[in-house]
Every structure is written in structure tokens, then in C-alpha cells.
Amino acid sequence: MIICDIVDTDVVIIPEQHLYYKPIVTVPEMIKDNQNIINNILDLLKILNNPTVIFIGDIVHQGIKNTEDSYFIHDFFRLVYHFTNGKVYSVVGNHEISYRKNNPFWGVADIKSDYVNNIIRHSYNVEQPLLTVVDDMIIGDMQYSFGHYGRKYSYCYKPDDNAKYVTLLSHNSLLTKEISDYMHDKNIDLKEQYVNIMDLRNLGSIPNTPLLKFVYVGHMHLAHGIFEVEENINDVPYNFTLHYLASLGRTSHLEYTNDLERNIPIHAIRNGKFVDEKFHKIILPPRELSVDERVVLENKESYDRLRQHRKLKKINTTTVDLIKDIQNYLVDNENPSISDLFARSANNELDIDILNLLNKYL
């Protein structure tokens, strides 16, 4: 447990950024979008009251081999450290764990989390850390519990005696059936997109304490919304706000949807007490400014052709009529036009059609 002797601070909870500087052909403006996110965060920190930053994980999308790009991300960490006077903390997400090689995160992180140390089993010996990874931390009367990727809570979880409230910062797929159905109605099928679903009602998914006041959820990139939970779960009377933050960084053209609003939660701690929660709103660029739809369409057509080719290779030709087998397969897979084209080609009818057109117009 880390106890911070901070009396007045604005605690800034920053959603996933997925910073990445490798150009993606379908999203040529992704690098520019990433830089805009960085600038927005830094501008926010300049105007807040003695800010403390907590990243919710997945700061960097993948390992970065280019030295110049790695420097830009390191410089971002350095500036956040500067504007917060060193009060920078982070949850460890699945991208920090999966992409450790060439990830600038591990070059600046001071790991004081027993959970994370047990996972990585490696000491990076960072001489000048720019952020700290912990399991739990007290700021004023608010305890912040770091829900690192895969972390579960034992039944004996007990908040510090100084804590009046608990905030969970989770980088896990926390869901309930009601929330999953709600997201599905918004055309976001979370259960198809994410594995290792943690049912919020299962023992160990959230800290088992009635002091829980806020739960902020990252990891599920498109999940966005605020829910009030007032329910007795595993004999614990809960009454907390459940907030799906949605990612600041969008990792493919599929994430460039019409949902452009993102909220950065800010907790005001004054005289050692939690006062209120407010939000800094970010509006992401619309799809038409970032995505090259022509390349998206070309890629889709190429993928469809490849998929059809793979399906054709799997056709079970048990009869002596191979052409008929392929034609029936195309019809069964809702490709009647392609089936007709194939049949006419097999019967040399396309050549006759071309000759008829030539005779008509020449």
C-alpha cells in the first residue's frame, strides 16, 4: 500500500492511448491523431491544481523499434512527470504485458506492484523512473486500487483504515449481462470481441467492500457509458458508479465510429478529502478526416477474394462433376451471381457474349 501525503491535488485518470507511430495504410492520419491526444493531455495538466496522473494501461500500442519514435513517447512521459512533479502512476494493461520488447513503458516504470512483479518476473533496473506501478494507493481519503490485467481480488480484501472511499481502475473485461445487452443494442458485441470476460458479480472481479465508489473500466476499446450500480453482490451492499471510458487511441479503421466523445475523469482532493468528480471532454476527429476509404475498400475486396479462394479449396467434391460441385457451393453460400458467372465460363458462354457485343457495336 502506497500512502501519498498529498493534501490538495487533481487526480487525472487517463484512458488507453495506444500510442503507435507505424503508419497504417487505412488510417494515414493515425500518427497525427496520436499527437493530438498527447497535446490535449499536456495542455490539461498545465491548468489543473497540482495534478496527479493515473494511466489506465495500454499507453503504448506495440513495441517500437524506431529510435526517433521511441524518443517522442519518452518525451511525453518526461513532460507528464514534469507537470505533475513526479506524481505519475499506471495500471498495467495487456499491451504492456504482451509487448514488453522495445516498449518505452518498461524503460520508465518503477514496479512496486507485487502482482505485476509475479507476472513479468524480470527486473528492468530503471535508473530514472518517470512513473510508478502499484497495487493500491491512498490519496487523501480515497483509496485507488489498480486492476492490472488479469488481477482478481481475494475475499479478504480490506481497504486501508484511512480510506473513506475506494476507486477501482480496471484493465479487464468487466461486464454483466445487462451491460452486454446494452452494448449489443449499440452494435458493440463485447463478448465476441474480448476473451477472459470477468462477470462483475463473480467473486474476485471487484474489491469486496461497500466503500467502492467508482469503477473505471478500460481494455474494451469501444465500450463507452456510465451506469449506477446499487445491488447486494456476494453479501456486500454496493452503491457505485461504473464508467466505461473507451480508448483515446483508435487502433484500426474499425474503431473510427460515430462515437467521438471521450471523457477524462478528474477527482478533486481538497484538504485531504475527496470533494467531487468532474470530466475533461475530448472530441476525436471524425472518420472522414482520418480514414482512407478507398484503401479500406480495396483491402476488403482483396480479403473477400482470398476468403472465397480458401472456401473453394475446402469444397468436398464427392461426385464426378467437379464443376457442378463448385456451382452448388457458390449458390449455397449466397453467391448466385458468381455461380452464374462460373457456370457460363465453364460452358464457354462468356466468349460468345463478348463476340455478340463486338458484332453489335463494331
Can you give a write-up of this model?
The protein has 362 residues and is an alpha/beta fold. It is 33% helix and 25% strand. The chain is built from 11 helices and 16 strands. The protein has helices at residues 30-47, 67-83, 94-98, 114-120, 177-185, 190-193, 287-290, 293-313, 322-332, 336-346, 349-361, and strands at residues 2-4, 9-14, 52-55, 88-90, 109-111, 131-133, 136-139, 142-147, 165-170, 173-175, 197-199, 212-217, 224-233, 236-245, 261-270, 273-283. The chain has a 7-stranded mixed β-sheet, with no helix packed on it. It has a 5-stranded mixed β-sheet with strand order 4-3-2-15-16, covered by helices on one side. Strand 3, helix 2 (67-83) and strand 4 (88-90) form a beta-alpha-beta unit. Helix 1 (30-47) runs parallel beside helix 2 (67-83). The mean pLDDT is 86.
How many strand segments? 16
What is the structural class?
alpha/beta
Mean pLDDT: 86
Radius of gyration: 26 Å
Shape: globular
| % residues in beta strands | 25-35%
List the helices and strands and how they pair.
Elements: E1 2-4, E2 9-14, H1 30-47, E3 52-55, H2 67-83, E4 88-90, H3 94-98, E5 109-111, H4 114-120, E6 131-133, E7 136-139, E8 142-147, E9 165-170, E10 173-175, H5 177-185, H6 190-193, E11 197-199, E12 212-217, E13 224-233, E14 236-245, E15 261-270, E16 273-283, H7 287-290, H8 293-313, H9 322-332, H10 336-346, H11 349-361
Parallel strand pairs: 1-7, 2-3, 3-4, 5-6, 8-9, 9-12, 10-11, 12-14
Antiparallel strand pairs: 2-15, 7-8, 13-14, 15-16
Helix pairs in contact: 1-2, 9-10
